[in-house]
Amino acid sequence: MLFYEQLKDIRKQRGFTIREVAGRSGVSAAYISQLESGQRGTPSPDILQKLSEGLESSYAQLMQIAGYLDIEPLAQDEHRKPLNLRVVLREYQVVLDGNLLTDRDIQWIERMLTAMFSREL
User: Fold this and answer.
1) How would DSSP label each residue in 77-107?
2) For tag attachment on the chain, is the N or C end more exposed, with fewer CB atoms within 10 Å?
3) Residues 52 and 44: beta-carbon distance below 8 Å
4) Ramachandran class of 118: left when φ > 0, alpha when ψ lies in -120 to 50, beta otherwise
């Protein structure tokens, strides 16, 4: 199955319209429509990241169907290295539903995660 067919299938499985995905991802509805109809080539990884947020889909999945990643390495959990979420939050620009998180947002998330995962012995 071709990339554009799979992209459209993912959107429909999630129950989103093209406009909803556009609003959530920051990618124009016209561009998404052109992707889904096969009028555009494979988008860049940056666009795929935005689409993954708008589709509530895995970035890795979109990278795979676009041909940027091999399926095999991602399927083998024993080869995946753990990521420190605190480092990711602090060192990368983090986006949620198309919105860039502010330093205040990140501090709040860190406090919530710390409270959620703190365990009394």
Assistant:
1) GGGPPP--HHHHHHHS--EETTEEPPHHHHH
2) C
3) no
4) beta
Q: What is the CA radius of gyration of the chain?
A: 17
Please give the Cα distance from 102 to 121 (Å, whole number). Answer: 34
Mean of pLDDT values over 6-16: 95
| Residue 49 one-letter amino acid | Q
| pTM score | 0.60
Q: What is the DSSP string of 7-23?
A: HHHHHHHHT--HHHHHH
Distance (Å) of CA 71 to CA 51, 57, 62, 86: 19, 16, 11, 28
